[in-house]
Amino acid sequence: MKSRHLVFLGPPASGKGTQGRRLADENGLAYLSTGALLRRALRDRTGLGEQARPYLDRGEYVPDEIMVPMVLAWVGEQKEGWLLDGFPRTVPQAEALDASVSEKPSAIILHVPDEELRRRVTCRLECLECHRVAREGEGEKCPKCGGVLAPRADDVSASFENRLAEYRRLVIPAITYYCDLQRARIVNGTGSPDEVYARVKG
Ligand code: AMP
Prior knowledge:
The protein is α/β, with parallel strands linked by helices. The strands form two sheets. A five-stranded parallel β-sheet has the order 2-3-1-4-7, with helices on both faces. The protein has a two-stranded antiparallel sheet with strand order 5-6. About 35% of the residues are buried. The chain is built from eight helices and seven strands. It has helices spanning about 15-25, 35-45, 45-60, 65-75, 90-100, 115-120, 155-180, 195-200; strands at about 5-10, 30-35, 80-85, 105-110, 125, 150, 185-190. The structure holds adenosine monophosphate. Adenosine monophosphate (AMP) binds near residues 55, 86 and 87.
C-alpha cells in the first residue's frame, strides 16, 4: 500500500466498513465512515442528523452541499494519512476532495455481485455505539466495546434497493473518474473477510 490517502468505494454491504477499518488500523491511518457519522448524528438528533434523516430514511444519498464541507473539514484536521469509507459517492464529491488536498487519494473499489449483497444485508448487524460491523455468530454484544449489536434501519429491503440504484447512478461515475485518472484498484469483495483483506492489502 503506497498511498497514505485512501478512499473506499463499493455498493452497500460490500464490506467497505470491515475492510476499511482494518486497513486503517493496521497502517495507522485516521478512519472516517460517513455513513456511521450520519447514523450517529441521527441517533443523537443533532442538526446534521435532522438534515440527513429524510434522505437516509428513503435510502437516498445526502446532498453534496451537506457532505462535502463536513468531510473536507475532517480531512483538513488530519496531520497524517487517512482513509475515507463511503466518501466520495459522486463525481462532484471526488472533484472537491481532489481540489482540497495536495497528495491525491487512491481509490479501492470493492466489487460484489448484487445477489451476494442482498444475502448479506438480510443478516448484517452493526454496533450501535462504535458502528463496527459484527461478524456472524458474535451474539448480541459488540466484542470490542460492549455496545448492542442491531440491524441497521436502512437495511430494510426497499431502502436497500434504493441505495443500490443510487450506487449505480452516482457512484459508478465516481469510480470511472478514478479509473480515468489511473488511481483506482478494483478488488474482488467475495469470500471471507480474511480472504478479501488479503486482496485489499495488495
Ligand atoms: P454507508 O454506511 O456507507 O452504507 O452509508 C449509509 C448512508 O449514508 C448512505 O446510503 C447515504 O444515504 C448516506 N451517505 C454516506 N456517505 C455519503 C456520501 N458520501 N454522500 C451522500 N450520502 C452518503
